[in-house]
């Protein structure tokens, strides 16, 4: 199923490579840089109206990016950091970074931490009950279509399939996904791909004193 989805994604929406270097401003994301290149091509082709409309979209995207960066700054308790972020966004000090790199954790420290909080020494594998009614939990194609059609924008999971592609292909993907869901329910086995996730550990403070982390978990959208 994943192979078919990825082939369709590569066929109709091939990937494009956008290079963002350290010389680019912090608010320039790959998407913004792609729109800037397209605007330049439109200007050179004499399509001024389309270039002007795209320029408005670029301006709004830059404002959203800068706003998101400034939202994480505490202007009440640390004015110095706030002005440092403003100088960074305006380009006053391009070579100065406001993020601290003093915090050092090895991969083994992170592995030990997550192993300690997620391990269950008394875990026992469960098996499906033979007396259970397997037909009472069937998921219909319409239910899967509604879930995909109403899917909110979310981060791409380990399957590399973006949420917008699932929402766009809901009429095609709903039937095979409903079959996979029902097979998983009837057999009592969850596919390994559905239990994986991207986990990014983020320290609560710039200089944490212990191994206490706040997790930003991008769970699988299926």
Structure write-up:
This protein has about 220 residues and is mainly α. The protein is about 50% helix and about 5% strand. The chain is built from eight helices and two strands. α2 packs antiparallel against α3 and α6 crosses α8.
List the helices and strands and how they pair.
Elements: H1 2-12, H2 30-44, H3 48-71, H4 79-90, H5 107-118, H6 141-149, H7 163-168, H8 170-187, E1 198-203, E2 213-218
Antiparallel strand pairs: 1-2
Helix pairs in contact: 2-3, 6-8
Q: Major sheet, described briefly?
A: 2 strands, antiparallel
pLDDT < 50 stretches = 94-102, 212-222
Task: Note the total helix count.
Answer: 8
- Judged by helices, strands and strand pairing, the structural class is mainly alpha
Inertia-based shape: flat
Number of domains: 2
What series of H and E elements makes up the topology?
Answer: HHHHHHHHEE
Largest sheet, spatial ordering of strands:
1-2
Q: State the helical fraction.
A: 40-55%
Number of strands: 2
Give a nutshell description of this structure.
The protein has 222 residues and is mainly alpha-helical. The chain has helices at 2-12, 30-44, 48-71, 79-90, 107-118, 141-149, 163-168, 170-187, and strands spanning 198-203, 213-218. Helix content is 48%, strand content 5%.
